[in-house]
Design a protein that fits this description.
- By secondary structure, the chain is of the alpha+beta class.
- It has four domains: 92 residues, conserved putative lor/sdh protein from methanococcus maripaludis s2 fold, CATH 2.40.420.20; 91 residues, Elongation Factor Tu (Ef-tu), domain 3 (Beta Barrel), CATH 2.40.30; 63 residues, OB fold (Dihydrolipoamide Acetyltransferase, E2P); 102 residues.
- The chain contains three helices and 20 strands.
- A six-stranded antiparallel barrel has the order 2-11-14-13-12-15.
- β17 and β18 form a beta hairpin.
- α2 runs antiparallel to α3.
């Protein structure tokens, strides 16, 4: 009986040693399975921005004169063409002023005609007096007329010349009067045109700020108008990520109302002044094709592609130890065993992967997921290469 008990104890001890050895082999000696990163090709490097749909050309339009609003011909959402009548003020008084200016022009025209007739008469009288005087002077030299007659002829010529000068001056005054009258007429006609509000460009009405019967002051806005062709996204980009953005770079836009639709666009403008509070740069992104039924102020997400990497080794940030701005430590498989390397880092992608640009020996394959059991020198089995 004692022998049996002793034998069982020995067998149990051997089993415990075997289990302990297996556990040690499993935990320390057995090759650890890992996934490694492969080389990715044609990788877009993007920065993310959150913004809103806006219009570059937005105008609050109103009248250049005060008055009573009597007619409105446009409403919110309506598309209008350049020059189309949008609203009108009560213009009866101004029409009367224009009519009076027209009458003044007619009166000045009549005055000019009268002055021209007087000038024509004075010119004829002067020409006749000049001929008579010349004849009298010849006769005086031949002693066939008296000195008094010659002097009277000379005086008549001088008087006719003076009359002609007066007529010329009166014609100039008449011309000045008609020019002034026509200028007044044009001014009053221009003022009359201010009583009609017309569209300054092909646009869309986004706000109606006045109603018939309203008494308006000069410049009080009646409509807000936008140019639909200038609709774009105003995006805010973190300053730390905005350094590589340039005008013309492609972008992908997602509107909140259509989260599954990706719209293409390009960077149209980078504003020279950042948001000082949020430390963000303002970037305007133009749509390649402006979406139908857009809504101003709608939230939009934008991914701007700043460059493309022909070939890149990309590792999730979670697999990098001691991550800093441009370096970190990674696990790698070399000749079937694990090693650690301090590597230099490049671009960081929106999906959380980071480019490794240096610090790896030839043939080293970077581990993409940290797990227990990683130890320098331990054997490793590559399960799969992470798809990029």
């Amino acid at each position: 009986m004692r022998r049996k008990t002793r034998s069982l104890a020995v067998l149990l001890f051997i089993a415990l040693i075997a289990l302990a050895g297996f556990g040690i082999w499993t935990a320390v000696l057995r090759p650890v399975p890992v996934e490694v990163a492969g080389i990715a090709t044609d990788v877009p490097v993007q920065v993310f921005g959150l913004g809103t749909v806006e219009a570059r050309v937005t105008s609050k339009i109103g009248f250049q004169v005060p008055g009573m609003l009597v007619d409105l011909r446009a409403d919110v959402g309506q598309h209008v063409t350049k020059g189309a009548m949008l609203a009108r003020l009560d213009d009866r008084v101004q029409k009367a002023v224009v009519a009076r200016a027209d009458a003044v022009v007619e009166q000045a025209s009549a005055g000019l005609a009268k002055a021209q007739a007087s000038l024509d008469k004075a010119q004829v009288n002067y020409a006749n007096a000049k001929i008579v005087n010349a004849r009298r002077q010849v006769l005086l030299q031949g002693n066939t007329t008296s000195v008094e007659a010659a002097q009277a002829a000379q005086a008549a010529e001088d008087a006719a010349k003076a009359d002609m000068s007066v007529a010329q001056s009166e014609e100039l005054v008449a011309r000045a009067n008609i020019s002034d009258a026509r200028a007044q007429e044009q001014q009053q006609a221009a003022i009359l045109s201010y009583y009609a509000l017309v569209a300054p460009y092909d646009g869309m009405v986004t706000a109606r700020l006045g109603e018939p019967g309203s008494a308006l002051t000069v410049g009080a806005p009646v409509f807000t108008l936008i140019d639909p062709k200038t609709v774009w996204v105003l995006a805010y980009i973190d300053e730390s990520k905005a350094g590589d953005i340039k005008v013309g770079q492609p972008a992908t836009i997602v509107l909140r109302s259509h989260p599954n639709v990706r719209l293409s666009g390009r960077v149209a403008r980078i504003e020279p002044e950042s948001d000082r509070v949020n430390e963000e740069r303002k970037v305007e992104i133009a749509f390649d094709a402006i979406p139908q039924g857009f809504t101003l102020g709608e939230q939009a997400e934008a991914d701007i592609t700043t460059t493309r990497l022909p070939r890149a080794l990309l590792v999730p940030e979670a697999a990098i130890l001691g991550l800093s701005r441009d370096s970190g430590t990674v696990w790698a498989v070399e000749d079937g065993r694990l090693q650690q390397h301090r590597v230099t880092l490049g671009h960081r992608l929106l999906d959380g992967r980071t480019e490794i640009t240096g610090g790896l020996p030839d043939g080293a394959r970077v581990v993409t997921a940290l797990r227990t059991g990683l130890r320098v020198g331990r054997a490793a089995t590559v399960l799969s290469e992470r798809r990029q």
